[in-house]
Specification:
Helix content: over 70%
Distance between the termini: 35 Å
Strand content: under 5%
Structural class: mainly alpha
Mean pLDDT: 92
Order of helices and strands: HHHH
Number of helices: 4
Shape: elongated
């Protein structure tokens, strides 16, 4: 009956890079893209952000803390979704531009 609160305080850049690396690997190994189209990415981002923002809104926190957390939700969910999309794209495309993106986003992950 015990409840555990588990969280990580990682930067949004870390979330982007981690999501990028995860989704590049999934696409390369399994051929799966979470977001084959940008419309799917946008829809998923709206849904996920909405659920997380609703959870933050219902917490017993000060208005200032709620606003800070609501903004963080938007930034982190954006980073994760963009990283997912870019990772899958990098697995498909092999141009010098994508190699530069890959080198940049794989650092420190």
């Amino acid at each position: 009956r015990a409840m555990v609160w588990h969280s990580h305080d990682r930067s949004s850049m870390y979330e982007l890079k981690r999501s990028y690396a995860d989704h590049e690997l999934v696409m390369r190994l399994l051929g799966y893209r979470a977001f084959p189209r940008l419309t799917g990415l946008a829809k998923s981002w709206v849904q996920m952000s909405g659920k997380l923002m609703d959870a933050v809104w219902r917490e017993n926190r000060s208005p200032t803390e709620k606003v800070r957390l609501l903004l963080r939700v938007l930034v982190v969910t954006s980073a994760r979704h963009v990283g997912s999309y870019l990772g899958a794209q990098a697995a498909i495309h092999h141009s010098p531009w994508w190699r530069r993106v890959d080198n940049l986003l794989r650092k420190e992950v």
